[in-house]
Design brief:
Number of helices: 5
CATH architecture: Roll
Order of helices and strands: HHEEHHHEEEE
Shape: globular
Distance between the termini: 52 Å
Number of strands: 6
Radius of gyration: 18 Å
Largest sheet: 6 strands, antiparallel
Low-confidence stretches: 55-65, 67-100
Oligomer: single chain
Helix content: 10-25%
Strand content: 15-25%
Amino acid sequence: MDHPPALSSDLIGRESDVVLFEVERGAIRKFADAVQDQTPACVRGDIAPPTFPTTFRMTVPGLTFESRQPGRDDLSDPGDGRHGRVGEPRFHRNDHRHLAMIGPVLAARPDAELDSGSVLPDLRKPPITKLQLVKYAGASGDYNLIHTDDETARTVGLEGVIAHGMLSMAFLGEYLCWLAGPESVRRLAVRFVAMVRPGDTMTCRGRVKQHTTNDAVRRLRLEVWTENQRAERVTVGEAEVDIT
């Protein structure tokens, strides 16, 4: 079995080449559907989820992936090839499948409930299915067959297909949107620490690591993770969100 080449230490600190993606409503809706992202603006295709569209084809244990949102004055218009907003967001309580998903849930919380160490509410996702993996492959552009074809997965030593690591990161992106609103996610960095398989049920959890206030904007640095039904952490990371 071929193994990926070892990474050179010369790569540390280097940035990848710039890749432009056209921001298009249909693609945003397709991505949200694949992730089962319940954020209203993402379901409508108004705002791209934090990890849209991001495809990593290299799998290296311990590699960290990071997603940063543009500043409030650097949100994109349709078709300009940058990540960001498509039109003005419109939040209506009657245009979404699950009323409980209407966020941001932290906006009304007092500072005392957002101190360092405060535990955040959980977001439980439906069980992962093979159909979802096929949808995510199409929405993200990651067509590696170990995520969709059992026979291919077995040829590389797996018991069957495994979920894309970026799918778990996308769950955390939805979690942050639910907590703070899609325009308030400033940063998300994760590590993938365990495999996820069809049938697994992911729960997104978090706690506050740091709370600062500047010009009436509360910025939270969070520890976030997804865990399976056995309470095993599969994706761990750190995020920053603004609460206004």
